[in-house]
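In practice, a research group might receive sequence data for several interacting partners and want a quick structural hypothesis before committing to experiments. The following worked case mirrors that situation: the sequences arrive first, and a predicted assembly follows.
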Amino acid sequence: MSKAFSFSITTKIGGGTLARTGTITTPHGTIQTPAFIVVGTKATVKAMTPEMVRGVHAQAVLANAYHLYLQPGHKLIENAGGLHSFMNWQGPTFTDSGGFQVLSLGSGFKKVIDMTGGTTVQNTPKRERRAFVDDDGVTFYSHIDGNKHRFTPELSMQIQHAIGADIMFAFDELTSLQDPYDYQIDALQRTHDWADRCLAEMDELRTSHPGRDYQALFAVIQGAQYEDLRRKTSKHLGQLPFDGYGIGGAIEKEKIGDIIRWCNEELPYDKPKHMLGISEPNDIFAAIEQGIDTFDCVSPTRVGRNGAFYTYEGRKNIKGSRYYDDFQPLLDDCNCYTCKNYTRAYIHHLFKAKEILGLTLMSIHNENFIIKLVDDIRTSIEAGSFNELRNNWLHQYYSDKN
RNA sequence: GCAGGGUUAGUGAAGCGGUCAAACACAGCAGACUGUAAAUCUGCCCUCUACGAGUUCGGAGGUUCGAAUCCUCCACCCUGCA
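A structural hypothesis for the assembly, expressed as tokens:
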């Protein structure tokens, strides 16, 4: 366990919900939870400078071991003085283990992370299987140059240790909803074995690098949509000396709340819980209600780069011709830099003209919107009005869509 | 004036007797994106009373069972020679 890392719970709601507020303390600052963690996969939040990231009140950034290992190489980041100094972000950081890529590069490709249960996968291109899992690790081919590589739990720890984020994730195997139950059991066993190896490797790294022993390590809970597997793995990993837990894996969207509850009922209450890869408002409410403290997601920036912006009435598409001469901000009364200074007509023009500032302005607004949503939820928990906020907010956000 | 080349849907550009409402690209229209191979991807894009029908491939006429594709004339554009 990391000595520099701690978590304290401030408020809990009770009354059938696990929602709570708290503070995560890291060597690079604190995170007030629940918190939305911005994703900066390749040591950059796409299209945003760190000043902008601070400007949208992001508390922490999550980067990725797989991507940084391939490019520019984790040794370079270590030589640069670590992730914080390399990317000029002085706040708390996370790194994901690269376990996700095992699957996203493998045969399941998009299907695994598709939380709709497979209804939107038709749009994604088919790719050949490019990653192979065995009990010891994963062999895969770089998406950049096709070179063959191999990840093991030990290597993932070494990479993340070199990158130097405050919070690291154990190397796990993400399964697909299509994988049969028997395979889920095998994969879960591997994730357990790998968790042990991650802990052992971290001990070694902390001992061999006395000056750099601050990093916390979170385990990842898998088990797809099976309650028995989710509970079993949560109970098992919950007994190990991890600093916190990430809930990941293939999930049917409708079951998000249930799945998180199964996990959190078994995991140690006083450890921080991170939900990997969600940011749809209804998912955020569901996750927080079931005791999630932090989450991360690429969606606000990705969706923004492709034209979608958040409003209280749902997502809208700035590329639409109806915004050609719409001189309102993206969202009335929004406190973000974009909305305080630019109109829909201007951003529409930037997108039509393929001007890169559009990507930045949209990313700012979307990150700000989701972060503010989570901040508002945190406030509501403290004020005892969580249920009220959730009901009103979700009603307004989703009512128009039908 | 002579010789040759060209004129295709919003634009550019394939097609050179049937499988052509016509490839492809761009523009246009709409949509999707949840631990980022994603400034990406998908669908639509002649007209309509739309799983069918009707008009198209500079204009007019002709050959043929059948033409954007062959022939004749006309219009305009380009390149050589004068």
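Before designing any experiment, note the following. Residues 107-127 of chain A have pLDDT under 50 and may be disordered. Residues 317-399 of chain A form one domain.
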